[in-house]
C-alpha cells in the first residue's frame, strides 16, 4: 500500500471514472516498466525485507528496552531497600507475625491432640483384640448367620452357606438353622458346578 498509495487515492477520489483511468495511465503508470516496478517489484521486495531482515533490528531494540526496564527496576528496589519502614508499617508487620505465630501454635496443638486420640484408639483396639480369641476355621458364636435373609439368596449362595456352616450350624433349604438336631436334615456338601 505504501508504494501504491497514489493509485488508491485516485480510485477513491471524486473524479469521474474516465478521468480516473486517464490520470492513472498518464501520470501514475505511464509505461509497463513503471507499472511492474511500482505495482509488483517494490512491494515484493518490501515484504521480503520485512519478513527476513526486520526481525534482527527488532530483536536488538527489544533487548535494549528490556535491559533499561531491568535497570529501572533494580534502582527502584535499591531505593525501597534503603528507605526505612515507618512506625505504622512496622506495627502492622509485627501484628501479622503475632497472628501467624498464634495460628501456627494452635494448629500444632490440634495436630498433637489428634495424634494422641488416634494412639488411644489404637491401644483400645489392640486390647480388645487380645481379650477376644478368634477362630478362623469356624464362625464365632455371636456371628449374624441367623439374620441372613434366606429367601433372597440364589442357589450358589445357598451352597456356599451350607459349606461354610457345616462345621458350626447346619442349614436346611427352608432357611432355618437346625440347632443340635440329630436327624438327617443337615445337607451334605456338594461340589460346586457353575
Tell me what you see in this structure.
The chain folds into three domains: 5-73; 85-132; 144-194, no CATH class. α1 runs antiparallel to α2 (17-28). The chain is built from six helices and no strands. The protein is mainly alpha-helical. Mean pLDDT is 76; it is low at 136-143 and 175-194. Helix content is 64%, strand content 0%. The protein has helices at residues 5-11, 17-28, 32-52, 55-82, 87-131, 155-165.
Can you lay out the helices and strands and say which pair or pack?
Elements: H1 5-11, H2 17-28, H3 32-52, H4 55-82, H5 87-131, H6 155-165
Helix pairs in contact: 1-2
Tally of individual helices: 6
Specify the overall morphology. elongated
* Straight-line distance between termini: 85 Å
Class derived from helix and strand content: mainly alpha
| Main pleated sheet | none
Helix fraction, binned, reads 55-70%
Which residue ranges are poorly predicted, with pLDDT under 50 across at least 5 consecutive positions?
136-143, 175-194
Number of strands: 0
- Reading the helices and strands in chain order gives HHHHHH
Estimated radius of gyration: 48 Å
Give the strand content: under 5%
Number of domains: 3
